Amino acid sequence: MKRLRLAGCTMQPFGSYLKSLAVLRLIAEQKYPDARGFWDRECFVLDAPLDEADLVKFFLEEYRPTPLVAPWNGNSGFYPGDRDVGIKAIEGSDSARFSAYREAIAAAKAIPEVAQAEEEAAESDDEARRFKILRELRNSAPDACVEWLDAAVAISADGSRAFAPILGTGGNDGHLDFTNTFMENVSLMLITPRRETPVKALIEHALFGRDTVGLAKIKVGQYDPGRAGGFNQGQGIETDSVANPWNFVLAMEGAVAWAAGIYRKQGIAYRSFLCSPFTVLPSAVGYGSAAGKDEATARAEIWTPLWNRPARWGEIRCLLREGRAS
């Protein structure tokens, strides 16, 4: 085993933490099952028979993206008027790396509520329609896609949907659909990169924190709020922000590890609850910018575990599956 410090995979912001989980998960599931990882005081450390060049080569040439799709959402790429650059690129690719992704897209498009939807139906908030799409997709999608569904949406016994706060409301944050953005960034890095896009330098920046001039104007959502754009968001007092597409891709791969579930609470008020790892109701204490309204408007608090001894992915996965609080 070689000890590889990933200077680009720090504990904060949250997207970087998720990126670290993604590296361990993907290497263990797709390359070396005995790979281990841990945190030192500055960043994530990977124990695997890999050097920096090997790790870069893995992501550029071998990495198989998890098939993230959310056909129950508008702006997901499946409906008229949606941006579909990423989904078309994956469908048009003949690489074996994207075979599961193509299968998941085909399964989603074959669902009657998706295939026959008119534009106004796709934008509808019909809960029954969305539930049918989710149920059918769980029954027909490849196993790798079901792992994503477990992280994004849970179905309770009464047929209602519950959402893990880490993935917004079923894989979106307002009008930003995480899955469609993921597909577009994957295609930008691995399928149809522009000639001027330094794909290798960008993955080296994401993993090892090396300098790059290839950052792009992309949406980052809730995972790196300092790069979300807007006035007074940086030293240049800019309104637009730039980010590394690999950071978003790996953050989403890490979010897949954060699988949620449903548990039941017995008592007078018997009902089902969403159970997401290390996630609790928000409390407006414990940080300098705390305000009373945070408890009413924030989705949740997430407290991420850090460990300083090498652990295999199976151990961390078990920790996340059992790390529940209410």
Describe, in plain words, how this protein is organized in 3D:
- The structure is a single chain.
- The chain has 326 residues and is of the alpha+beta class.
- It is built from 13 helices and twelve strands.
- The chain has helices at 14-30, 52-62, 85-92, 99-109, 112-115, 119-122, 127-140, 143-152, 178-191, 199-208, 245-256, 294-297, 313-322; strands spanning 2-6, 36-39, 44-48, 153-155, 161-163, 172-173, 176-177, 261-265, 271-275, 279-280, 301-302, 311-312.
- The chain has a four-stranded antiparallel beta sheet with strand order 1-3-2-12. A two-stranded antiparallel ribbon has the order 4-5.
- It is globular, with a radius of gyration of 20 Å.
- Residues 119-124 and 262-273 have low confidence and may be disordered.
H and E string: EHEEHHHHHHHEEEEHHHEEEHEEH
* Count of alpha/pi helices: 13
Secondary structure category = alpha+beta
Query: Quick one: overall form?
Result: globular
Determine the fraction of residues in helical runs and give it as a percent range: 25-40%
* Major sheet: 4 strands, antiparallel
The strands making up the biggest β-sheet line up spatially as 1-3-2-12
Mean pLDDT: 85
Q: In percent terms, what proportion of residues is strand? A: 5-15%
Give the distance, in angstroms, between the N- and C-terminal Cα atoms.
Answer: 39 Å
Report the C-alpha radius of gyration, rounded: 20 Å
Q: Which residues form runs of ≥5 with pLDDT under 50?
A: 119-124, 262-273
Number of strands: 12
How would you sum up this structure in a few lines?
With about 325 residues, the chain is an alpha+beta fold.
